[in-house]
């Protein structure tokens, strides 16, 4: 005999947990299942173990989606302040790192514990881990689920299975599969917020630079610009400025990177020429850049001479060549290392206020499985909380 519940949620990640809390607080009976052995695995891993749980600057412009307006309603009704109030209620200490990004002082574990406690406090939410879905159908207005822990029936079914990123943390394509089964279109998926890889000459040239980082570069692709850190890796480039632009990058597109975007390099070189004409150009660059990078640049350009040997005009024309790189990534590190998945359940067949399917009543999609992807910096969790809350208010 199937166990009946009002709300059945698949996926106990950020969005599924928030949906369960919100529905439970409305006294809806909820069963929340996950195939992993524990809940909220990505939350635990997030923000380097400190969970960048929201961003105080959240707005629709921080999200990629085929419909950029879709996020507005849910984000307006569950704001960063709502989540901050929850964090404060649980006395979890946090700090702002930069640009509105809020992190736990201690550990991401506190966020998972908080969400679990909130589920328990409702008295209406049952969580089952290591529970895999075997089949699912809707018949006579009721959803029927066969799982590895028995059969369930429910009035509302919420798909909160996340994206394809980091399969070792439990990611699967189940949400897209269920979406298609119920007639939904799925926007093409690809890895986002992901390190970029290079082959051939650029990689050979950067070989000695793996591990070298720069505090601020500007990455540019068409209209998008991000100022943040950059890291050379064994296979290419990473760091926040690269992760951010990677979500906009498509294979075959070159990428512009400006080193020292906050420095007038020609002015610096002219100043140093006046002060120390005997200083080599390479050493003048080492004052602003890591030594190994200055060395690398000196191998690309004739930088061995002393500043005094260059005319002012030569220094002025060399500076932008040193600062502005155009690079052609060969690919990305893929879902294995991507923080998020771009694409997903097409928003045109979902209600933006409740996340309910416009094709199948009682069916909801929330969180990363939907074609909504945030920038780096706490925006993805805010979408998970907001969309989970939106569905939780209606299921
Ligand atoms: P999420 O992936 O959290 O949860 C989906 C759940 O569904 C999982 O528990 C999974 O086990 C379960 N599931 C999947 N397939 C299933 C199946 N077949 N059967 C049953 N259950 C299934 N964002 C941010 O805002 N700030 C940050 O600091 C970070 N940091 C970060 C670090 C790393 C390493 C990664 C990979 C990602 C981030 N992110 C982030 C992104 C953020 O983690 C992500 O956007 C949210 O977790 C999405 O929440 P969801 O609930 O939609 O999916």
From TrEMBL:
<keyword id="KW-0560">Oxidoreductase</keyword>
<protein>
    <submittedName>
        <fullName>NAD(P)/FAD-dependent oxidoreductase</fullName>
        <ecNumber>1.14.13.-</ecNumber>
    </submittedName>
</protein>
